[in-house]
Structures are given as C-alpha cells and as structure tokens.
Amino acid sequence: MRGVNKAIILGTVGRDPEVRVFENGEIVTFSLATNEVYKDRLGNLVEKTEWHNIVIGIPNLCEIAKKYVRKGDIVYVEGRIVSRQYERPEIPNVKFTSYDIKVNSLTLVSSKQRSAESLQSEENVADAPPHIEAQQELNSQEDDLPF
Description:
alpha+beta
C-alpha cells in the first residue's frame, strides 16, 4: 500500500529567503510560523508557535520566492515532509534529525511590504500583484521514492 505524505501550511514568513547555489541548480529556504491559540485548564489564552523549514528546489518556484517572498508575508505552501540527519561538531557521536517541507506549490497570500507601497502610491499595485501563485506538477521521474 502506498502512503500519503502531504503538508499544507499557511503561515507567516519568519526570515527573508536564503538562496544556496549548487552545480545542478539552486534551492531557496525560509522559515514559516504557524500559530495555535487555545485556553488552558485555568481559562487563560495560550498561543503556541510552530516553526517550519521551507525548502524550494523547483526553478520557477525559486525565482518567485526570491523575487516576492519577504519576512512578515503570509504564504500558503503545499509539499511533502522530508527528514534529514546531521551531526554537530560540538556534540560528537550524536545524530540530530530535522524535518523540512519540500515545496511543490507556493501562493503569496499577503505582503506587508507591498501593502505599505500601495498605500504610498497606487501605481505600485500594477507592479506588485497581491496574489502570486505558482505550482509545479510532479511527475514520476522527479519523485525520489524507491517504489
């Protein structure tokens, strides 16, 4: 039986995108925060923030993220959860696991920067669309699953 590995996240960008260039392309990474608000047993409101590592490796999505995504923006992403293990030199013989969201769809929901610009000048609205969406269809050749 095949499993399903799909992540859907709507959150606030925590840092500007970081670009890493390799011989066979580039990846863009940034953090995305999601908030949960609930009442504890005493009736106090508690806000919990989860941070997600976002990784984009699809060329056209990388270009869009580099050009439009900034800290404070609200972004909707779809992708799959991938894990990676690493070691830290200061803690020998201990392996750490990090979980990333490998993106295949990206939608810019709102932007603080472009909202401020549009208040200053209505001409900026045509230059900076408020809703940008990009998606890359996955085919079986791009999928790195062993089955």
